[in-house]
């Protein structure tokens, strides 16, 4: 009974290409990704909004037990054409990760993300929580995550095929949200009000 808000017209081609090289304790991968999508602006018919995404990523890993290190970066450009707007919009997203794990027991991940885009007062209008006071989507922030895998060493010895219990704590913070660090939505909300603490406990038992 929930009405559909996003309906795609026709096919949405998606592609992903990766080059991977393993050199002993080191591995490196380079990737390219793309998507083209046409979405009806209202309901399931009528004018469509068009989106073209082109992106790339790189990843380096160093595995020397008990240490495991990963560095990763991605960048995506999205070209947006809206049926109700006179000018197209661009959106650029960059994200960087760095993580360290010790013997599959404990891990630390740090990440930084940055989004920049064209000013569009129709698409990014003032509104509580999700709006933009200045018509821009610019957002910067990052997160810190700690993973604990208790009992993993014991389980690997006794039952190596079983998935592991995992505990994760992640804190995401924002320096800028939808174009500003303070009163970004035009209703007095600051970017830091979107900071989030996420706690996960997962076990197969």
Compact description:
The protein has 205 residues and is mainly beta.
Mean pLDDT equals: 90
Distance linking N and C termini = 36 Å
* Strand content bin: over 45%
Shape: globular
Helical content (DSSP H or I, runs of 4+): under 10%
How many beta strands in the DSSP annotation?
9
Going by helix content, strand content and strand pairing, the class is mainly beta
- What summary fits the major beta sheet? 9 strands, antiparallel
Lateral strand order in the biggest sheet: 1-2-3-4-5-6-7-8-9
Total DSSP helices: 1
The string of secondary-structure elements, in order, is EEEEEEEHEE
Low-pLDDT parts are 156-162
Structure description:
The radius of gyration is 21 Å and the shape is globular. Mean pLDDT is 90; it is low at 156-162. It starts with 13 loop residues before the first strand and ends with a strand. It contains 1 helix and 9 strands; from the N terminus they run βββββββαββ. Strand 5 and strand 6 form a beta hairpin. A 9-stranded antiparallel β-sheet has the order 1-2-3-4-5-6-7-8-9, with no helix packed on it. It is mainly β.
Features:
mainly beta; 9 strands; 205 residues
Q: Which helices and strands occur, and which strands form pairs?
A:
Layout lengths: L13 E10 L2 E15 L7 E17 L2 E15 L7 E14 L3 E12 L21 E10 L3 H7 L7 E11 L19 E7 L3
Antiparallel strand pairs: 1-2, 2-3, 3-4, 4-5, 5-6, 6-7, 7-8, 8-9
